[in-house]
TrEMBL record:
Domain of life: Bacteria
Protein name: DUF1223 domain-containing protein
Signal peptide coordinates: 1-22
UniProt source species: Phaeovulum vinaykumarii
Keywords: Signal
InterPro entries, sorted: DUF1223, Thioredoxin-like_sf
Length: 254
């Protein structure tokens, strides 16, 4: 478990990006122009899990909301059941196990939702989810100002902390995802069924550490049409190393 958190942050090559197009899309995170940061909802799921389709559908329902950043992370530990999830990554399994370790849980399961990097839902239902989202929005983890701007294949990220230093191990992360994709599943527990998935994460990379003691900026080459999310997340230190902690801010660019 020592590398569970950072193993999920696949090494990312950060390059200075020039102007690659005329179109600009911008969205502000917490503190920018008084706007609250969207609440990040992570769903750990699998195409090989017969219990997951209702949770996948719930994520699809909330995905269009602008007060939420809903992300679907496909894990690989059910691949042995007859169907290998085409979006599964071991890094996402490691990330889920990191959350479980923090919560004192000995096992992971699907479907599972985690809100704001801090609240593991006891059940994936609309009522439980809405309550957790409301609580996270009412009590943000830290006053972080996060601004992102995309122009063509260039992404600019600007950060500042409005209340001094951040927790040790805070990492700025870049997520890419597929907004909508339909998958036919010929084998396994869901054999013969087709599903529409929303906000399927295909990459989750670390841009760099940030202590919050001064402004920080990243200029990243952002290739491909997929939307991006920038997440600022604290780490929780354990005897075995850092594990994922509360999400301090997040912003999305389409």
């Amino acid at each position: 478990m020592k590398r569970a958190f950072f193993a999920a942050l696949v090494a990312c090559s950060v390059a200075v990006a020039g102007d690659a197009g005329a179109e600009t899309t911008a969205e502000d995170g917490q503190g920018a122009h008084g706007a609250a940061s969207p609440v990040v909802v992570e769903l750990f799921t699998s195409q090989g899990c017969s219990a997951c389709p209702p949770a996948d559908a719930l994520l699809a329902e909330i995905a269009p909301r602008r007060d939420i950043i809903a992300l679907s992370l496909h894990v690989d530990y059910w691949d042995y059941l007859g169907w290998s999830d085409i979006f599964a990554q071991s890094a996402f399994t490691d990330r889920q196990r990191g959350y479980a370790r923090i919560a004192g849980e000995r096992a992971v399961f699907t479907p599972q939702m985690i809100v704001a990097g801090a609240t593991i839902l006891p059940d994936v239902t609309p009522a439980v989810l809405e309550g957790a989202i409301a609580a996270a929005a009412a009590h943000p983890a830290a006053p972080v100002r996060l601004q992102v701007r995309r122009q063509g294949e260039a992404l600019h990220v600007a950060l500042s902390a409005e209340a001094g230093p951040l927790p040790d191990g805070t990492v700025v992360q870049l997520v890419r995802y597929l907004p909508n994709v339909r998958v036919d599943i010929p084998q396994g527990e869901n054999a013969g069924r087709s599903f529409d998935y929303s906000n399927v994460v295909i990459a989750w990379n670390a841009l760099g550490a940030w202590d919050g003691q001064g402004p920080r900026a990243f200029d990243v080459a952002l290739k491909g049409p997929e939307p991006a999310v920038v997440i600022v997340q604290a780490a929780r230190e354990t005897p075995d190393g850092p594990l994922p902690g509360p999400i301090l801010a997040a912003a999305r660019v389409d």
